[in-house]
Amino acid sequence: MYKNKSVSLVLPAYNEEKNLAPALRDFISINLFDEIIVVDNNSYDRTAKIAKRMKVKVINEKKQGYGYALKKGMAEARGDYIMLSEPDGTFRARDAFRLMRFTRDYDVVIGSRTNRIFIGKNANMRFFLRNGNYYLAKLIQLLYKTSSISDCGCTYRVFRKKVINEILPNLRVGGSHFLPETVINTTLLGYKIYELPVHYRKRVGDSKITGSLLGSIKVGFNMLKLVFLLKFRYPLPN
């Protein structure tokens, strides 16, 4: 609960048994969330069992993909505010309060991982990823007249429930280039966005999305294509 408003946390999970329990303990310990939802996206390890043992809500998304998992969790969440994050140790639970602080004046508050001061040792935000996220965010800012943003792919963000209800029917991306779509749709509907830096740490386990240079390039290309497809109203691939 935050200032008499309920808060839901959505964590997409695909084979996250290595850090899921510590991450959940961290988020539970701050006493902010009225519900925590782990979206099991076809894990074949102990992800679902660990989440159930931690007594959080576990739902399944059979369509494979980061975007599909987040959309399922967003649709199921019941809080007045819905926060997205990761179960892999990259984000600090207590930074959730920094995001919530701005929800009084903004409809969506998003984190940024591009400020070097906030990037931890060995975090997966080196030159290529950091600059790729930064310049793509600036392209979105230019084309869609968003408020100032510096990171197009940070999962850590919080939405008012009414924003989720409005943008969900318009979200088509099921893959790892899902997050820019939420920003663009939020802006097109006239909602206000604010961005602030969040701490970003070394991941526990291997990244399924940007763990390799080739994977990072693929995600970046898909995000770039998405930005232009939405701008010129072409149909979106998943």
Structure commentary:
It contains 8 helices and 7 strands; from the N terminus they run βαβαβαβαβαβααβα. It has helices spanning 20-29, 47-53, 66-76, 95-100, 127-144, 161-167, 178-188, 213-231; strands at 7-13, 35-40, 57-60, 81-84, 108-112, 157-160, 193-197. The chain has a single domain (7-231), classed as Spore Coat Polysaccharide Biosynthesis Protein SpsA, Chain A (Alpha-Beta Complex), CATH 3.90.550. A 7-stranded mixed β-sheet has the order 3-2-1-4-6-5-7, sandwiched between helices. The chain has 238 residues and is an alpha/beta fold.
Write the layout of secondary structure elements.
Elements: E1 7-13, H1 20-29, E2 35-40, H2 47-53, E3 57-60, H3 66-76, E4 81-84, H4 95-100, E5 108-112, H5 127-144, E6 157-160, H6 161-167, H7 178-188, E7 193-197, H8 213-231
Parallel strand pairs: 1-2, 1-4, 2-3, 5-7
Antiparallel strand pairs: 4-6, 5-6
Order of helices and strands: EHEHEHEHEHEHHEH
> What would the CATH topology be?
Spore Coat Polysaccharide Biosynthesis Protein SpsA, Chain A
What is the name of the CATH superfamily?
A: Spore Coat Polysaccharide Biosynthesis Protein SpsA, Chain A
Q: Could you say how many structural domains there are in total? A: 1
Structural class: alpha/beta
Beginning-to-end CA distance, first to last residue:
35 Å
Reported for the largest beta sheet, the result is:
7 strands, mixed
- Give the averaged pLDDT, no decimals: 93
Evaluate the radius of gyration: 16 Å
